[in-house]
Specification:
Blueprint lengths: L13 H19 L7 H28 L4 H28 L11
Helix pairs in contact: 1-2
């Protein structure tokens, strides 16, 4: 890699965020049982898997371009450290949403 040459991964990509959003909507539509979307969940999960493969490959290619090698152990540790945080966040957020009062009068102070 030459000095000043941009890396392969330079932050978020709006197009990938859009595909991620479409995949989420497809999975939700499939689980909701919409009659016109019997395979929507399968398509949504497939999109997620394709994006995961692309993003992981991009991260590894970027590391190789920056350092000239891939430290697979470091990559796996870095990725695995994100999983517990995401699991906690994904389990707490729905509980907070369900526990929130639906009637605004319940929030009023007497």
């Amino acid at each position: 890699m030459r000095d000043g040459e941009p890396t392969l991964r330079s932050g978020r990509n709006g197009a990938l965020d859009a595909v991620r959003g479409i995949a989420i909507l497809l999975v939700m539509a499939g689980h909701a049982g919409f009659p016109g979307a019997p395979f929507a969940s399968v398509i949504g999960v497939t999109l997620f898997l394709l994006m995961s493969g692309f993003l992981i490959t991009t991260l590894l290619a970027d590391e190789r371009a920056r350092t000239g090698r891939i430290d697979l152990r470091r990559f796996i540790v870095r990725r695995s450290l994100r999983i517990p945080f995401m699991r906690v966040r994904s389990r707490i957020a729905p509980r907070v949403a369900v526990a929130a009062p639906r009637d605004s009068s319940a929030l009023a102070v007497s």
